[in-house]
Specification:
Elements (H helix, E strand, L loop, with lengths): L9 H44 L1 H4 L21 H10 L13 H14 L12 H11 L5 E2 L2 E2 L15 H9 L11 E6 L4 E9 L3 E6 L4 E5 L3 E6 L15 H12 L2
Antiparallel strand pairs: 1-2, 3-4, 3-7, 4-5, 5-6
Length: 260
């Protein structure tokens, strides 16, 4: 039944419909802008949180002081969820602690870190993860762990691809002495009876030093009871040049690490 134009004019119906359609269009156009504004606001809040809690190790620009370069996370394949989880849980066997901060604050930090990262790399990952796992087990697992399995003398490599680019990981494997992470500097302690104990520094002050020796034992010493403390340049980790690890094997290893 047609409406009585004297009660409900047709032009009013058409005008009302146009307003509904126009309003829906404006809302649809506004949503991306609103989302972008929310992300921007989160990044702004994240700047202050990052500088307050993270910059001591990662630098004000996120490129690292004693910690990892965080400006390549998304280019290395990281996601918001994985970065937030890493901040929340920390990284085992490293100086990266877990966080009890509210999710809103962690999302602010993640938003800021994303703003530092360039677009994700379009380079196709190379190598075979299964082959890389075999290489890791035979050459790396005595000192490094992945997902709870392996040694503790070197840094835990679980999710290492979230914070290290392929180029940085390649350098760390080919020439580990070029840069040594905090908590893994090489030291030799000489006791008063001439015993030499080699390991990595876990803590040190004017009066004492704590190390993890090459047998993965945590030990503490008073410096007054030692004959000498020798801080060595370089790393306990040997260099794995092309003569020890072929480029194709390195591709496999990096593919394995990027999948953990």
């Amino acid at each position: 039944m047609r409406p009585d134009p004297r009660v409900f004019p047709m032009h009013a119906l058409r005008t009302s419909a146009r307003r509904v359609v126009f309003g829906a269009l404006l809302l649809a156009l506004a949503r991306p802008v609103m989302a972008q504004e929310q992300r921007s606001q989160g990044a702004v809040r994240g700047v202050d949180l990052f500088r307050e809690r993270c910059s001591e190790c990662h630098g004000a620009d996120g490129k690292g002081v004693t910690g990892h370069d965080l400006t390549r996370l998304w280019a290395a394949g990281a996601t918001d969820a994985r970065v937030l989880q890493t901040i929340r849980n920390g990284v085992p066997n490293t100086i990266m602690p877990s966080s009890t901060a509210p999710d809103e604050e962690l999302r602010g930090i993640v938003g800021y870190l994303r703003s530092l990262n360039g677009p994700a790399s379009a380079t196709t990952a190379r190598g075979d993860a299964a082959g890389g796992e075999r290489i890791f087990s035979s050459m790396c697992a005595s000192c490094h762990a992945v997902e709870g399995r392996g040694g503790r003398l070197g840094p835990d490599l679980t999710r290492v691809a979230d914070s290290q680019s392929r180029e940085a990981l390649t350098r760390a494997i080919r020439d580990p002495g070029a840069a040594t992470a905090a908590g893994y500097q090489t030291v030799t302690l000489v006791t008063r009876d001439g015993q030499r104990i080699r390991g990595t520094v876990k803590g040190e002050d004017a009066f004492s030093i704590q190390i993890m020796d090459t047998g993965e034992r945590l030990q503490g010493y008073l410096k007054s009871q030692l004959r000498e403390v020798i801080h060595e340049p370089g790393s306990l980790m040997p260099a794995f040049g092309p003569d020890r690890v072929r480029d194709t094997d390195l591709d496999d290893l990096l593919r394995y690490l990027s999948a953990r």
